[in-house]
Design goal:
Blueprint (H helix, E strand, L loop, with lengths): L11 H14 L3 H9 L10 H25 L7 H22 L1
Helix pairs in contact: 1-2, 3-4
Length: about 100
C-alpha cells in the first residue's frame, strides 16, 4: 500500500514530456515516474496497426529461416549468394523484432 509522497520540480516542457511518455505507455504519470525511478521496465503499448506489423514481421522471419534451412539442406544445390542474402534479411528482421520486444 502506497502511503508516502515524493515530489520534485520540473520545467513546463519536462512535465509535458513526462506526461506524453506516460500516455504512450498507457500508464499514469506517477506510475511512469515510479517505474523509471526504480529502474523497472517501462514498455510501450502498441497500436493495433503496430501489433499487426509485428505479427507480419515475425511470420516473415520464420519463413525466411525456413527457406534458409531448405537451401542449406544436402538435397538442394547450394548457391552462396542466395544464402548470404537470406542471412542478411534474417538478421535485419531479427534486429527489428528485438526492438519491439524491448
Amino acid at each position: 500500500m502506497r502511503t508516502q509522497y515524493i515530489s520534485f520540480r520540473v520545467s513546463y516542457i519536462e512535465k509535458k514530456a513526462v506526461a506524453m511518455a506516460a500516455r504512450e505507455t498507457g500508464l499514469s504519470t506517477s506510475e511512469f515516474a515510479r517505474r523509471a525511478a526504480l529502474n523497472q521496465k517501462v514498455t510501450l503499448r502498441f497500436s493495433p496497426q503496430e501489433l499487426e506489423v509485428y505479427k507480419n514481421l515475425h511470420a516473415y522471419h520464420r519463413n525466411f529461416k525456413l527457406i534458409s534451412n531448405l537451401i542449406k539442406s544436402p538435397h538442394y544445390y547450394k548457391n552462396e549468394m542466395i544464402l548470404h542474402e537470406l542471412q542478411e534479411v534474417i538478421t535485419l528482421i531479427r534486429q527489428h523484432l528485438q526492438k519491439f520486444e524491448q
